[in-house]
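Page header: ASSEMBLY MODEL / two components / 646 residues total.
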Amino acid sequence: MILELIPSTLRMATPLGFAALGGIYSERAGVINLALEGMMLIGAFGYVIGAQASGSVWIGLLVGTGFALTLALLHAVATVTFHAEQIVTGIGINILALGITEYLLPTTEQVGGLPHWKVPFIGSYSFVVYLLPVLMVASHVLLFKTPWGLRLRAAGESTEALAALSLSRAKWQYIGVMLSGILAGIGGCFLASEVHYFTKGMTAGRGYLALAAVIFGNWHPLSGIAACFLFGFATALELANRWNIPVQLLNSLPYILTMVVLAGLVGTSRPPASLGRMKS
Amino acid sequence: MFASLLRNRTSQAKHLFVNLIPSVLALAGFFLLCGLVLQVRGQDPLEFYSIILVSGFASFDDFGYVLFNATPLIFTGLAVAIGYKSGLFNIGCEGQLYIAAFAAAWIGIHLNLPTFLLIPFCIGGAMIAGAGWGAIPGLLKARYGAHEVINTIMMNFIAFALMNYLVTSVYQEPGQMIPQTQQIHEAAQLPRLASFLPVLPRSNPLNVSCLLACACAVCCYIFLTYTRWGYELRLVGNARDAAAYGGINPGTVTIWVMALSGAVAGLAGVAEVMGYRHRFLDNFSSGWGFTGIAVALLGRNNPFGILAAAILFGSLNKVALDIDILLGVPRGLFLAGQGMLIIWLVSIESISQKFFDHSRGVKRGD
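Prediction written out in full:
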């Protein structure tokens, strides 16, 4: 019973996982990123536009990621350079992405999916699905075992430490936000590659759900991705609903759980100390 | 004494001027961007600008539509501003207005009372429902320190799911496939202004909820500027520690401010259910809660500024429809422009603040 839910769980969790990893990089560097939703959406849009124009899914992946990276750059310029309110900027970017994709809405001509890899005992999935656990472990090592990760995290935790080493906080924040753009963009590309076309607002709140996973996973790559799989499983359950549980309850379960965790009622969730604080 | 009064006046004028800079610059950028996009499309931007001027203000009928579009945005803009003045971000207006709209519809369907009782009951019930939905993130913030932004976002999605459940499984209009409730009693319906104002044609949807919105803006202004609670609210927003030192409990203020903000956002749901559609339809709001953020920013969180900003957005919504029909430009252009407008507003605000503090020799920070 659980076994047959694995394929849809993987498909649901993968785009969430990429966006959540992106969110972790950005927020660990101290920049709140509500723009994940918009970055995913424009990633999906870019994938379809690129693949339709060139006929190659790789160009689609490149264009989608590039578009998301551009939005991330906009977020970084506004928040890191101009010290604009990060929450508002993020919402602005989401509205911008919704508008751009509606204005330039691509045709419903189908595009190819990203290549599937067949792995014994697991099955045949898009290679992006296999990439996620690799990136998850790599991110964990990078963030917590290397000097590079220490500096990125210092940008979000203690600005004094960075200043004492005469390192630029802005540089690390740019890196964090841009990485979030690339990762969320790939998540969006995957989403579009699975359904083969683009529809208006097709991310349907997945960016916010990814953000919930970041918080639920306490800003850690391993637990953050685990949260994505949990949320993906909840979504898969609603597809294979056999017990007459209202779908809407399963739908809102991730949000309720996140609120419970954030309140510290079960477990703890502690954001980076300087998250969202620009003035040092 | 006179000199000091005069100085006070000029400093007030300067303050107003500084306050308006971001709005004016961002709006100029918005119109330039739209014109530029049209130029790229090979259309005449001047034609577009003339449509903007004419579309919403050519006749009473047109202006009625503008005010009709502006009504929910006035409420959500005010709701965002109430939170913002107290240092709280209410991103949950969208969820709050849905919950409130459903409460209004439920009361309007199930209570059979005369108009003078039913309308206050519906509005009151809706405000209480919105306030309750808004108070939860406030409570979680005050009690557990959980960030209200995340919680209001989560509660938006929970509200969408709850509404979808109620309107497809429990309260769906019998014999219909559309996810909507049945009509509310006629006694609960707010009359259209066309029934008193002969200048408006019968088809114009402008209704009493618009007057309610204007009254609400005035009430908010008085509340925020002249009452003790308004003072407490602003003090907690500006100097939390000072407020605590002065005997105000910031936690309590956080809870009631979020509740108040939710109640005002809920009135946008009232405008929809009691003023226009006379039933609850799933997904009726086209992002009013989020546009409210733009409206509050553009109006500089001042109730009268919000009124003006909401009317501007109301006319832009109408223009968006007109250029779609007349010039074949998709509505998405304005949505994208609105996103850029928000980003510019907060960026310019932050830059100009730094600039003016610098020129006065004040060092901000800590």
